[in-house]
Write a structure and sequence with these properties.
It is built from four helices and 32 strands. By secondary structure, the chain is mainly beta. It has two domains: 283 residues, 6 Propeller (Neuraminidase); 118 residues, Rossmann fold (3-Layer(aba) Sandwich). Strands 1, 2, 9, 10, 11 and 32 form a six-stranded antiparallel sheet that branches. Helix 2 crosses helix 4.
């Protein structure tokens, strides 16, 4: 791993964007490996949806994969087709150990869409917990299955599911770099931007329609914002020196960025259209990698003002900064959880760069990864998981770990490196 200063320089001096701006399908899909389970698993029986063979993707298979991947459910195979209107022998399912039962059906509509009907049953109380129907186009059947899995997750855990969210990351294959967007399960990969040079620091807008990133098209680092629906993009920061580390405010009105226009890299804010630049820090060190808190009241950032890289917090309008991390001499890349309770970051200890989480209420710190070259953590929008970049077989890979460290996933592509992950927000 490189020094703190060199890492900052490299992260802000990369990316040359060329080629199509519209999102196009990508050929390689992410492959997911799962290890570990939650401290307690909820046994759920999932019956095959009636007539689901007519859909392009099998609804129940996607639901099972989502719930399995979460680590919080034990899937019980129903071994039968059960519709949402079928009579259910709850005693039989209780004997099989199922606390909940998922049933449903698919019907083809006259306009070519599929009417996907789903019901979640509580076998212990012999009652219905939830259910709905969705008229899905053929290309949206996978999304519909994710929404059903989200509903199951929320009704049984009390936490909103994140299976229907998206992730963005950078893939390098040969000499080409691609900013790619995929479903949270790695399917449906789309290329948002192609480049002959690295692309870095992608950051989702709060509404999930835009991504900010750093490009080097002008032979210097420049911050862009790109609309993922239309491909339209706009320069947000192109000042003297480096323009780096964009991070959106929760309401989407501003970006926190790092600029070296006045000498050492410092934190600034700028309106989403590039206007209204405001300097937020004025330290004698390097201040970079800003991140808004979920309520928009604070900004966490990285600074070496104390002699080594540590994480600080300040008001979102600037002012006095307070140091947050004290364990270890090298802590970088702050990310704050949606509920504001947990700070994730990369810490170098005994020569290893690993993912840590700090409970900001209790002060308890926990190491979440067992690899040695980790970077770029990103919380899931429900706060239950953290995605980060690491290495696997000398290639860049993505990993996901639950905030308690018990559930782990690894995401790889067949050929190439994956870096710079960022987990998108809940979609409305």
């Amino acid at each position: 791993m490189m020094s703190f200063l060199k890492k900052i320089i490299v992260r802000v001096a990369l990316a040359s964007a060329t080629g199509s701006m519209l999102i196009a399908p990508a050929s390689a899909q992410l492959r997911i490996e799962i290890a570990g389970v939650g401290s307690s698993q909820i046994p759920v029986a999932i019956a095959a949806f009636a007539d689901e063979a007519m859909t392009p993707q099998q609804i129940t298979s996607i639901i099972k994969d989502d719930l399995n991947r979460s680590g919080y459910f034990k899937i019980i195979e129903a071994g039968a087709v059960i519709t949402e209107t079928s009579p259910v022998n709850f005693d039989e399912w209780k004997k099989r150990g199922a606390e909940a039962l998922v049933v449903g059906s698919v019907q083809r509509l006259a306009d070519g869409r599929f009417d996907v009907r789903y019901k979640l049953l509580d076998t212990m109380k012999s009652a219905s917990l939830s259910g709905f129907s969705v008229a899905a186009t053929p290309e949206n059947t996978r999304k519909t299955a994710h929404k059903i899995a989200d509903d199951i997750y929320e009704k049984l855990t009390g936490v909103r599911g994140a299976f229907s969210t998206r992730i963005a990351y950078v893939t390098k294959a040969g000499r080409e770099y691609r900013l790619e967007v995929a479903d949270a399960d790695g399917e449906g990969v789309r290329v948002a931007l192609r480049s002959n040079e690295p692309i870095i620091s992608p950051s989702w807008s709060a509404d999930g329609t835009k991504v900010a990133y750093v490009s080097f098209e002008a032979k210097k680092p420049v911050i862009w914002v790109q609309n993922l629906m239309t491909g339209e993009r706009k320069v947000i920061a192109n000042y003297k020196g480096s323009n780096s580390a964009p991070a959106w405010s929760p309401d989407g009105s501003k970006l926190a960025i790092a600029l070296s226009r006045d000498g050492l890299t410092q934190i600034y804010s700028v309106n989403a259209d590039g206007s209204g630049l405001q300097r937020l820090t004025s330290s004698s060190g390097i201040d970079t990698e800003p991140q808004f808190s979920a309520d928009g009241q604070s900004i966490y950032f990285l600074s070496d003002r104390s002699g080594g890289p540590q994480i600080y917090r300040m008001n979102s309008n600037g002012g006095e900064a307070k140091r947050v991390t004290f364990s270890g001499s090298y802590n970088i890349t702050p990310r704050i959880s949606p509920d504001g309770r947990t700070l994730a970051y990369i810490s170098r200890r005994e020569g290893k760069f690993q993912l840590y989480a700090l409970d900001l209420v209790s002060g308890q710190e926990q190491r979440l990864s067992d690899t040695s070259k980790d970077e770029s953590p990103s919380f899931s929008p429900n706060g239950r998981y953290i995605m980060y970049a690491t290495e696997s077989g000398r290639r860049g890979a993505l990993a996901v770990v639950s905030v308690d460290g018990k559930v782990k996933q690894k995401l790889t592509v067949q050929a190439g490196d994956i870096r710079e992950p960022t987990w998108g927000p809940f979609m409305k």
